[in-house]
Amino acid sequence: MMTDFRFVLDKSSKKYFCPACHKNSLVRYLDIETGNLMPEQYGRCDHEQSCRYQLTPYKDDKYKAESFIQKEIKPLKTYYIPIEVLKGTLKGYGQNTFITNLLKNIKYPFPVKMIEKVIGLYNLGTVTTGYMKGAITFPYIDRFGKVRAIQVKQFDQYNHTTGTDFIHSIIEKESATVPQWITDYNKNDLKVSCLFGEHLLKQYPNNPIALVEAPKTAIYGTLYFGLPKTDKDLIWLAVYNLSSLNAEKVKSLKDKRVILFPDLSADGHAFKLWSDKATEFNKRFLNANFIVSDLLEKNASKEARVKGYDLGDYLIEQDYREFLTTK
User: Fold this and answer.
1) For 32, phi and psi rounded to 5 degrees?
2) CB 26 within 8 A of CB 15
3) Is pLDDT of 69 > 90?
4) Burial class (CB in 10 A: 0-12, 13-18, 19+), 50
5) Rounded distance, CA 69 to CA 201, Å?
6) Can you give 24-84 as a three-state secondary structure string?
7) How many Å apart are CA 117 and CA 216, to the nearest integer?
8) In whole angstroms, how far apart are CA 271 and each of 115, 188, 298?
9) What is the average per-residue pLDDT within 151-156?
10) Per-residue pLDDT reduced to its tens digit, 100-150
């Protein structure tokens, strides 16, 4: 297997100061020939919609001649998170801020049984110790039942994100001795390499798919439009973030009806990007049926666009009972 890339984005969870938005949100470029990070101006901001700063070494004359290294590398093996680690997160819901908000702090709280069903459907969990105590865990489990990643999100009382990490990173930081599975897992080129909720495709093989950016939005979609009862009900999945929508990740959906709901962006960049991707997938996959909803794009205010609202931001202000009684 050959590679043409000398400079790649650093795969660790560490972020650096972004020269554009002045936040610690920059993913630096790594020189894979030397193993060293590139100078601090080379990177991509994680705030994809509000900032979108990106500067690659390939744009610099100093590095253009070094872009191609033609090295032999071994085919990549995928390492998974042990199922025991996932099971260890399935507790502590009483101290889970996200879950508590849905039960008590939002305008129209959900009944306990409804939340319990969604927790079970997506294997949602809790971090019960350490600096992320009270955070919710969103596991990315593929259609074969393998745990590809477990994202950890801290939320405030309004379910706005205040912190993000991954379970393997947290365990690595807080363990006196790093477990061998983490050493192996860190060899993965990509951590989030499947869809959030992808494991549901085996259980619901004939259902249409609603695809959103973040797991939080997928959870809201399921709560408002209902858990699947027939093969006509939507299954809500998430890709992780705006730029991670790609053919490799959605190949498990290639023979399904898929409705994409991109987040809003100030200049319509998100909608256009996902519309272009949908066109690409429809051409690439036989019998593909990817369409992009323009519901938000047509009706959103300027303020909502600037803030990058998603479908969930609108749903959570509504009474879920009005949605479910119309089904």
Assistant:
1) -75, -10
2) yes
3) no
4) middle
5) 40
6) EEEEEEEECCCCEECCCCCEEECCCCCCCCEECHHHCHHHHCCCCCCEECCCCCCCCECHH
7) 15
8) 30, 30, 11
9) 96
10) 999 999 999 999 999 999 999 999 999 999 999 999 999 999 999 999 999
